Write a sequence for this structure.
């Protein structure tokens, strides 16, 4: 997201005669972004995030949401760990994998 301050700095630099390439390098942005700022009258640019796709997990998302609701109502010590939930999903037919960086040993939150 570009702030109004950055947009103003880019426009002032271009007005002083600096090239788009110099301005892009100076403010660490692409030349396409500098061109967009220079040709547009907008004072703010926002970029929409893509909705994440879950090709393997898609059929199990509703099930996971239901589990999360039930687990969040339980006391902390009675909650299942991520590994336990993963193993339960595997028994139900889930064929995906897990990563160690996902924190599978912590209770499901």
């Amino acid at each position: 997201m570009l702030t109004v301050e950055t947009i103003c700095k880019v426009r002032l630099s271009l007005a002083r005669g600096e090239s788009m390439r110099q301005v892009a390098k100076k403010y660490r942005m692409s030349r396409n972004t500098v061109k967009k700022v220079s040709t547009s009258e907008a004072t703010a640019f926002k970029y929409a995030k893509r909705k994440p796709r879950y090709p393997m997990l898609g059929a199990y998302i509703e099930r996971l949401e239901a589990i999360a609701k039930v687990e969040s109502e339980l006391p902390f010590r009675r909650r299942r760990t991520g590994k336990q939930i993963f193993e339960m999903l595997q028994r139900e037919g889930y064929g995906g994998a897990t990563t160690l960086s996902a924190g599978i040993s912590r209770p499901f939150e």
Notes: The two ends are 30 Å apart (CA to CA). The CA atoms of residues 1 and 46 lie 5 Å apart. Residues 100-109 have pLDDT under 50 and may be disordered.
